[in-house]
Design brief:
The complex is a heterodimer. By secondary structure, chain A is α+β, with helices and mostly antiparallel strands. Chain A contains 3 helices and 24 strands. Helices cover 17% and strands 35% of the residues of chain A. The radius of gyration of chain A is 47 Å and the shape is elongated. Chain B is mainly α. In chain B, helix 1 runs antiparallel to helix 2 and helix 3 runs antiparallel to helix 4. The chains are: A alpha+beta, B mainly alpha.
Chain lengths: 367, 193
Amino acid sequence: MKSRILVLSIILALLLASSSGVANPGGKGDNNRDFTCGGSCHGDPSLSSVSSADIQIDTVSTAFSGTATEISISISGMELSENNLVGIFLLGSKNGNDDNPEDHGWQIIQDPNGGTSNYVEMVSANDNPITASWVLLAPIDAGTKEIFASIHHGSIYNPNNKAFIGETDGLIVNIEPVPENYPRLKEGWVSPDERISGDSSPIIVRTVNTDSLSVLWRLSGESQSHQASVEIIQDQEWEVSLPATLGDTRIEYQIIASKGEFNNQIPWLSMGTSDPYFDGTSLGAKLQSLSFTLIILGFMLSLQAWFSPRGAKKLADNTNEVEEKFSDESSDYWSRLIPSDDNPGWLWDPIEKEWVADPNNLPGGKQ
Amino acid sequence: MYAITFHHMVVGLAAGAGTLMGLCALLAWLSRYISNLESSQSTLDKASYAASILTLVAIPLAMFSGYYSVSDPAGSAILYNKFIFSGIAMGFTASYIAGRVRFGPDLWTHRALGNLQMLSALFGLTAIMILGSIGSKITLGESTLDILPFWPEFMNSIVINQWISLFLLILGISSLLFSFRIMKSIKPISDLD
């Protein structure tokens, strides 16, 4: 009986634990993920529901193999949870495994958040539409490829803690063989996702079949673009100087690779700004903190000594000792005096050899 | 897990005690100039003294619990600043207690020492306010002191090389020993004419 209760308790505890872990309200972070996380989290229909969002996926219908291609996903009309977070998947299939576009020959140069993941999380202010753009190198193998988009999110009115899932049908992209001598980015080159604040060191771009390279840059949110300085450092390797950025600024840049009649305009890439490298250590912090404490304490104590009053120490009150001394001397003095019947009122001092008036019997009968 | 909870509790104690220390010290100092406060000087002095002792106990506990509340306690400038300002707060609070112990409750009657004591308490309180503001920046991303136009940038910190920090530590110990030596001859104000 006891073992049954124990087993039932364990099952109940597991069931309760699973219900509290249905979703990740704070998101799971950008990463490479399969459709519905490979069926592990939101694939179960009892844990998910259909999103009301309208999802549009947009790209060119034909791309040359190995060339940069932009794929945009626009999402609108969704009802989000309080944190307005949406998880967006760019997929090569919807099997639940090997769904990353990179499993289908694509190479992600940059995701919407500056990284190289097929799943990103974005925040929609006031449920406004979101547009997320990936820049990918098209597969080397010619043929047709399908691209899918999927989203998941929470909702304010969500008593059962379900995840809301939206998905698109496949968008077919024709991959054609790249024309001979077509200028393009070298396979394997990835755009840097961020630079350290204030760093103006150039970025290195590697290309194929490129005679000249020009780069335009603009700050994120600005429409006017500027020409960047480009220098060739060796064959098909270019050094691009972009201005340093500070704070949360993102800088966007567009590479245009040219050779003869071909002019390959690569989609805009972006680069964030990271905090400067911090070289503090725990030991250094403790030492610095303690040294500041002691220096301040030493300085303030010195000031206290400097400002301390210079008055003399109070004189000791020796009244009692003096009175006692005088009292002792006085008793010795009076005890040696000899009264005289011949001279009433007077006492004879044998040491000083003189008459002294008796204070208890003053001469003439005075008291 | 418990370090975070304990840190929140101790930080509250340090902030409350530090505020009491600063405000009571300021009022005790003002009692020299405002006759209405004169009768409360002794009470304010005692309250400030007790609060300063609690502050000096609470700050190291806050540092200790804060150290175990984050994965990398000195991994960023903002956390590094917490160490530095904790040291500054402890330095001024300890100076306040040392002055009070050395000169006694009558120090407020001495103009220069009263000024110095009040400044020690206020600087200690300011350092604690900055500490609280840094903590708020870390947990909430903002601070009420952000409204000040001249507020320092917490995202940057002055990192001193460990050897220079060690040198400063030795310098601090030396200056402290020297200060204690010259303070031996100093008596409480009540013993002076």
